[in-house]
C-alpha cells in the first residue's frame, strides 16, 4: 500500500487539499497519514511581566486541534480511504519530514496558494522548504 503524508494547518484551503489528497489516494490505492504540527509556543504570551506560560491555553488548543484531526480522519475514512492521524508540536518542516520517513511515505501532499507569480507566495514557504529538503516526492496541489 502507498503511504501518503498529508500535513494540514486548518486554513481555508484545507478542505480543497483533503479533496485532492483523497482523489490521489483512491487513484493509487493509498493510505493517508494525516499530520498537524502545532507551534511549540502555543501557551506563551508576552505581557508587562515578560514571557508567561499558560498551560491551560496550550491544553485547550491541543484538544481542539485533536478534535479537528479526528473529524478530518473520519471524513477521509467515510470516502473509503484508509487514514490515521498524528498531532505533534515543534518545527513543521522537520516534524513532517521525520513523520514521512517513519511512515515510509511514498508521497507528501502539499497545497499551493496561487495568489501571485512570486514563488514563495505561490507555493508557500513550508511547501517550498519540503520540496527542497525532502527525498520523498512532494505532490503540490493548486488551491485556486
TrEMBL record:
Q: What family name appears in the similarity comment?
A: Belongs to the universal stress protein A family.
Please give one Pfam family short name.
Usp
Keyword Hydrolase set for record = no
Organism per entry: Kaistella yananensis
* The protein, known as: Universal stress protein
> Which controlled-vocabulary keywords does the entry list?
Cytoplasm
Top-rank taxon: Bacteria
Q: Cross-referenced InterPro entries, in alphabetical order?
A: Rossmann-like_a/b/a_fold, Universal_stress_UspA, UspA
**Which taxonomic lineage is given here?**
Bacteria, Pseudomonadati, Bacteroidota, Flavobacteriia, Flavobacteriales
The cellular location(s) given in this protein's UniProt record come to: Cytoplasm
Which residue range or ranges hold the UspA domain?
Answer: 3-142
Location (main, coarse): cytoplasm
Amino acid at each position: 500500500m502507498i503511504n501518503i503524508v498529508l500535513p494540514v494547518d486548518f486554513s481555508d484551503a484545507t478542505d480543497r487539499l483533503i479533496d485532492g489528497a483523497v482523489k490521489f489516494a483512491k487513484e493509487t490505492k493509498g493510505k493517508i497519514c494525516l499530520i498537524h504540527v502545532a507551534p511549540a509556543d502555543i501557551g506563551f504570551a508576552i505581557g508587562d511581566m515578560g514571557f508567561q506560560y499558560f498551560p491551560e491555553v496550550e491544553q485547550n488548543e491541543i484538544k481542539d486541534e485533536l478534535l479537528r484531526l479526528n473529524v478530518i480522519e473520519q471524513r477521509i475514512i467515510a470516502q473509503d480511504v484508509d487514514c490515521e492521524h498524528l498531532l505533534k508540536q515543534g518545527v513543521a518542516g522537520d516534524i513532517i519530514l521525520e513523520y514521512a520517513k517513519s511512515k515510509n511515505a511514498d508521497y507528501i501532499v502539499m497545497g499551493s496558494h496561487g495568489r501571485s507569480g512570486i514563488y514563495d507566495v505561490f507555493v508557500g514557504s513550508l511547501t517550498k522548504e519540503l520540496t527542497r529538503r525532502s527525498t520523498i516526492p512532494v505532490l503540490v496541489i493548486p488551491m485556486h
